[in-house]
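*** Protein under study ***
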Amino acid sequence: MKSLTVRLPEPLVADIEAESRGRKISKSHVVRERLEHGPRQRRRTASLTAIADLIGSVNGLPTDLTARKKEYLHATGYGQKRPR
């Protein structure tokens, strides 16, 4: 296999590196796949786009819910056995 050196914009390099880490494959493999088949459709982005209008639409929740979810679930009794 021959090698080729190219210069890429920083955002594209960051995207390739993130995909490489996420899929646990080499950056070269990601680039070869993209050249052969085009960029993969990212599920996370598609999912986020699908619910973008709902983000921030629930009132009354704590602002740090994602950082302290276990504490809030424990406080509400989630996951504990209920009396029968």
